[in-house]
Amino acid sequence: MSAPSDEGLPSRPKEEAGEEKGPSKSALKKAQKDREKAEKLAKRLALEEEQRMKAEASDTAKHLYGPLSGQSARPVKKFCKSLQDLESVAEDEEVTVQARIYNARAQGAKLAFLVLREQEHTIQVVVAEGGAHGISRQMIKYCAGVNTESFVRVTGLVKAPKDPVHSTSLSNQELHLESLYVVSPAEEQLPLQVKDCIKPPSTREEGEGEADTNDPNATLKTRLDNKILATRAPATNAIFQLQSEICTIYSQYMLSHGFTMIQPSYLAGAATEGGSGVFEVTYFERKAYLTQSPQFFKQMAIAGDIGPVFSIGPVFRAENSNTKRHLTEFTGLDYEMPIQEHYHEVLSFGEDLMLHLIRQLLSRPKSKHLTSIIRDAGYPDAGNFQVPPEGTKATRITFQEAKTLLKDSGFDIGTDPHADIDTAQEKALGDLIKQKYNTDFFTIDQYPLSLRPFYTHPSPSNPELSNSYDFFMRGQEIMSGAQRIHELPMLKEMMKAKGVNPVDPGFKDYEEAFRYGCPMHGGGGLGLNRILQFFLGLNNIREATLFPRDPVRLGP
Amino acid sequence: MSAPSDEGLPSRPKEEAGEEKGPSKSALKKAQKDREKAEKLAKRLALEEEQRMKAEASDTAKHLYGPLSGQSARPVKKFCKSLQDLESVAEDEEVTVQARIYNARAQGAKLAFLVLREQEHTIQVVVAEGGAHGISRQMIKYCAGVNTESFVRVTGLVKAPKDPVHSTSLSNQELHLESLYVVSPAEEQLPLQVKDCIKPPSTREEGEGEADTNDPNATLKTRLDNKILATRAPATNAIFQLQSEICTIYSQYMLSHGFTMIQPSYLAGAATEGGSGVFEVTYFERKAYLTQSPQFFKQMAIAGDIGPVFSIGPVFRAENSNTKRHLTEFTGLDYEMPIQEHYHEVLSFGEDLMLHLIRQLLSRPKSKHLTSIIRDAGYPDAGNFQVPPEGTKATRITFQEAKTLLKDSGFDIGTDPHADIDTAQEKALGDLIKQKYNTDFFTIDQYPLSLRPFYTHPSPSNPELSNSYDFFMRGQEIMSGAQRIHELPMLKEMMKAKGVNPVDPGFKDYEEAFRYGCPMHGGGGLGLNRILQFFLGLNNIREATLFPRDPVRLGP
Questions:
Q1: Is residue B555 part of a domain?
Q2: In this structure, are A207 and A164 located in the same domain?
């Protein structure tokens, strides 16, 4: 009789039911062998563990290494705040530093070499058996096994190496280790090696130009996804130190010229600026909007008699453009000032500001040093930026002159004199002006009114033109600016002509600024990230942005 | 036969149909009189217009006044950028200034007096018939009739008045007018008089304490609704100039202590900080959130080896609180630094920073001058701020000491040693500490862990406490800060304990910061607006904010 079938249930396929059949002879043999193998392994591991325990128990150096957390570390005699400070420490002095493990390797059981890294500074650490504190082999093994990128506290004696250590930046010094505590370990598997971020990003990425599949360097995307690791590479780190320098030079220039730093609001009750997109914010029971620029707040400050004003802060653009020079959030260096007689006062001020900024970046010791780190990492244009000599004004051409220059060089500028210059033409213009005037910075004045926002002041001498200007570095726009309309009737007329709806509640506040007397004024908004990008000749604005935001990226 | 009725339409009531009846005799008489009156008036107006036209045609001074726009104004010999610069101009020199009409009155037909205002500076302008340029009576009438708050360009000769003009700040000078052009007129009806904003806001407003119905000063709400006019009042103007001073002193201190200025992002992919509310942003096809602090970005910068960092930027809080010290957007002065051995390094740094800031505000000539303007306007606490003498450290007490102080002074602090100190107790504490230590600035250290956010480092000596601190000015909190957890296992444990969900995509980025080695670090976030508010002793944080945002206010 056959066994009763499991009626109603599908019968199990043979393969799955295999274990229910009696084992074959060869399978039994294999199982026996496996068991023996496992027993052997277990014995070996137990022995090793026993040896390890014994060794540890006899490890006289136990207090000299390990995780810092919960450890009663040796008291620190002299803390060096930076690896660079070691240069001023005398030989044989005991110092403590905190830095990252950049490299760690054992050379036999009695010796190990570490390299510590902090920004662009590196130093070799020698871990040798014995010595005054009795460094053990276990300790050497531990030190050589610390994962790279771990943050450690190292105490040692400063020594001059027999031969300079060419692979480190502090090549005339090394540390002879006395203790090493891991402040914070790095995981063994890193998603990105800092070594692969030393040079500029690979162009392997799609859309990043000619693909070089042999390029070992990490792509920009990988770096942005692993921003914390990527930022540790010296050049990338220096880029953001230099960003701080730009903010500092800018602020100091503005303050020394009588400007007041204001803190605009970044939330507006209405999307007032028209044109490009704004981000909508859920504001309790209603809608608010992220400001696309501090424009209106600067103007209100002028109407409120604060005088010339500047700000440093985020600018939000809800534009779905994925280019190398656009972000949805960037830092604006904005300013606005009263005009006495002519808007060229504002234009000249801005030009002088930019020339000062660039000259400072080229001459301040800290900026020069940072720029050289970036250049040496393989950014050939870093620091190679021409401006007219001190005492000379910036190169300024009118929009029509720019078009003529392009036309004379064979560019098709069409027949409409008010058609804009496109990005490719701007770059070509940068080359033409570099040839003609030997400058990487220039400005274009008197744009057609039709190309500018409604609040731009028309040119009194030609109503088709406007009192407006753009600033360029290496033929790429870094600022738009203009004299603004300060007379309410003209503003209303222009809003009508440009199809801006003045009934919008946001415009009520804006119009207020011109109802009660407003000085003539003008200004502009510099893009911090673009200044940094083009000063250094970086390929992508994301390289000049600590936490870039674009239509697809919202983190880290 | 009766007229056919408008069938289907309601018949009009008699009163409305009244005009269809024949006029009465008396009505006809009245109409005749009205006609005669109107004819007389028209004749008179025509005559006046004729006289005006004649006068204008014969007005030899026509080119010396009027709206600036479209006018070929007289060429400027010497522009004074500020009214204050007039003090260094020699008598009888011709100068041009641009400022507002603060006051204008005719004294008969041949003389008028104007007062020009620019921030806290005022000067008298004498407009007298005749003179070298032949000032006409029409011109005098025009000048006396310019609406107050209009922005004008005035050219005149600098003169010493016979007697000092006590009603103006430049009392030893006056201008003898030669020309006056209106750059931008103010409307005749102003929603707020600048004169009513000279002194602190009235307490008439609901919920603003004891109502004083006789107080002629504008309420805060009126001032905020008409921000541009209110900001023109000297004290209000000086408050925002002083805000710039605070940012300047702060930045300079940070830079001189080796900090790097970073530009965090204000948009996050997830609402990571838990606790208080966040504003949601529509970010293309998904959601983003406005950051509640640059906390995570500062920490990522530290993990990315930027070193000690600081920032100045907006902080967004979607909290529906309508108090005198809360806003939905304020300016954060944030900083974060690596710790070498103990978090008191960070606490001491912050204390020294604040002492430096306050001492500078009390001693820098510009800050002192601005503070005195504010004090003189009726803010008695402005500039009256005690800190320990130079070379002395800040007053620091522990949370438990604070509670004991309160208890000893009769406050009910309850039985739970980890219960927080409330706002009223903090203020009382400020008074107690002022009495005991003669300081308006102090810090409280070692808050119970349960009161702080998940990323706060527990105290190694007492797991119920934390390595955290708050800063106070006049007994009001201006900063929260702490050592942050830098070890991933501890962070995860704390997130679990605090009920924070680590699966949230925002936390993935955050955790990354601690996967690859992170220095011990700590920092804090100072509230710029609160520092300004409490340094000056302002009643409401909105007085210390150029464009305040709260649950009900989104403009101007």
A1: no
A2: no
- Give the pLDDT of residue A203: 79
Query: Are A175 and A227 in the same domain?
Result: no
Tell me: the pLDDT tens digits for B491-509?
999 988 888 776 666 677 7
Q: How far is B264 from chain A, CA to nearest CA, in Å?
A: 7
Residues B502 and B478 grouped into a single domain: yes
Residues B400 and B510 in one domain: yes
CATH number at residue B77: 2.40.50.140
- Per-residue pLDDT of A274-308, as tens digits, reads 545 899 999 998 999 999 999 999 999 999 999 99
Q: How far apart are CA A393 and CA A396, in angstroms?
A: 9
Strands B174-184 and B65-67: parallel
B414 and B285 in a common domain: yes
Nearest to A549 among B243, B265, B519 (CB): B265
DSSP string, B506-536: HHHHHHHTTTB----EEEEEEEHHHHHHHHH
Model ipTM over 0.95? no
Q: Which residues of B432-454 are buried (b: 16+ CB within 10 A; e: fewer)?
A: bbbeeeebbbbbbbbbbbebbbb
Domain that residue A411 falls in: 234-544
**A250 chain-B contacts, CB cut-off 8 A:** none
In a domain? residue B383: yes
A142 conformational bin, left if phi > 0, alpha if psi -120 to 50, beta if neither: alpha
Q: What average pLDDT does this structure show over A496-521? A: 83
**Probe site for chain A from B72, B225, B228 (most A CB atoms < 10 A):** B228
Q: What pTM did the predictor assign? A: 0.89
The tens digit of pLDDT for each residue in B351-367 reads: 999 999 999 999 999 99
- Top residue of B547, B552, B553 to mutate, by most chain A CBs within 10 Å, is B547
Write down the residue that tokens 């004290």 correspond to: B235
